[in-house]
Design goal:
Elements lengths: L3 E5 L2 H13 L1 E9 L2 E8 L8 E5 L12 E7 L8 H11 E11 L21 H11 L2 E8 L2 E6 L2 E5 L2 E7 L4
């Protein structure tokens, strides 16, 4: 049976995810404006899967042994790491030959988090070009690229629209 492992640095987030998995309910404060809002309690039983486990760990130091994963998904992560190339190396090592890596990122780098010389992309190549080149250099077949639309609700009157690049690539080797 397939097992899905969610890796999260925050112990509180892992605790919350496990609680949702256990109860099948999601309760949260939905902000309207300022501190005003309301509590929402949703039935999430149809979304909970028995084969999912959440562990506390650092994605930058991916706690997985070599060639153990069929798929690695990193959403809005690479441009939040101090060393994104190190994450990609560890993810590559953990991925089985024929496995897939799925990345989604808006390339919203912050120098306070990632030194400029560690960004994927530079003045000469876009992040997209650099990422696709890196996959090609490491014997991955890019199966799909797309620009996703992501709407984030800050509160009732303010939303952010983000267009992360999504890349799905298959690692070379036996499938």
């Amino acid at each position: 049976a397939e097992i899905v492992i969610g890796v999260e640095r925050s112990f509180e987030a892992v605790k919350r995810a496990r609680e949702i998995a256990r109860t099948g309910r999601v309760a949260f404060h939905l902000k309207d404006e300022g501190d005003r809002g309301r509590y929402v309690d949703l039935d999430a039983k149809d979304l909970v899967r028995p084969n999912v486990e959440f562990i506390c760990g650092d994605a930058a130091a991916l706690p997985l042994p070599a060639a153990c994963a069929d798929t690695i998904v990193a959403a809005n992560l690479l441009d939040r790491l101090r060393r994104p190339a190190e994450f990609l190396e560890r993810a590559d090592r953990a991925l089985r030959p024929g496995g897939r890596m799925v990345l989604a990122m808006p390339f919203t780098w912050r120098e306070a988090t990632t030194d400029r010389d560690r960004w994927i992309g530079d003045a000469e190549r876009s992040g997209r070009e650099a990422l696709l080149t890196a996959f090609d250099d490491h014997d991955y077949e890019v199966e799909e690229t797309d620009e996703l639309g992501l709407l984030i609700r800050n509160h009732r009157r303010a939303y952010e629209w983000i267009r992360p690049l999504m890349v799905r690539a298959r690692k070379g080797g036996d499938s």
